[in-house]
């Protein structure tokens, strides 16, 4: 289990935070530099998982940040998307989700792969004028070419889209 780490990059009004490792009770959010950025992008691609104490620390950190900046979550891996859909507050009110990974499995060869879904292509978070939704299609397996299918229960996996 890799230690929780955060890499920060500031560019004008945009702060990008790249999280990696395991989100647990040892997660140290004080390593994140204070910023007056109006937009904060959270790249979660390298997060390996979490436990309940780490999730509690996440919510304690992200709640006040979301009150002063526009949060955008990007490249959330399946382990984190599950938490987004289960845990109220993981995605704070007003935050945007720009992309997530969806696990796919090929019955023919057993290959597993995470496919990047982007907002507007694969799922839509919805706006005042549109409803949220998702579209799951089989995809060709990158190993054997047979149909691979999403290895999730869509109603549960995409539940974060419908939370207010």
Question: What does this protein look like?
Answer:
With 164 residues, this protein is an alpha/beta fold. The chain has helices at 52-66, 78-86, 154-157; strands at residues 5-11, 14-23, 39-50, 70-74, 96-97, 99-106, 112-119, 122-124, 133-134, 139-140, 147-150. The protein has one domain (5-162): STAS domain (Transcription Regulator spoIIAA). It contains three helices and eleven strands. Helix 1 links the parallel strand 3 (39-50) and strand 4 (70-74). The two termini are 33 Å apart. The mean pLDDT is 94.
Using brief descriptors, characterize the structure shown:
Transcription Regulator spoIIAA, single chain, alpha/beta, 164 residues
What's the structural blueprint in terms of helices and strands?
Layout: E1 5-11, E2 14-23, E3 39-50, H1 52-66, E4 70-74, H2 78-86, E5 96-97, E6 99-106, E7 112-119, E8 122-124, E9 133-134, E10 139-140, E11 147-150, H3 154-157
Parallel strand pairs: 2-3, 3-4, 4-5, 7-8
Antiparallel strand pairs: 1-2, 6-7, 6-11, 8-9, 10-11
Q: Into which percentage range does the β-strand content fall?
A: 35-45%
- Average of pLDDT: 94
Spatial strand arrangement across the major sheet:
9-8-7-6-11-10
Q: Determine the number of helices (DSSP H or I, runs of at least 4 residues).
A: 3
Rg over C-alpha atoms, rounded to the nearest angstrom: 16 Å
First and last CA, distance: 33 Å
Shape: globular
CATH superfamily, by name, is STAS domain
Q: How would a crystallographer describe the biggest sheet?
A: 6 strands, mixed
CATH topology: Transcription Regulator spoIIAA
CATH class: Alpha Beta
**What's the number of extended β-strand segments?**
11
Q: What is the share of helical residues?
A: 10-25%
Number of domains: 1
Helix-strand sequence: EEEHEHEEEEEEEH
CATH architecture: 2-Layer Sandwich
Q: List the uncertain runs.
A: none
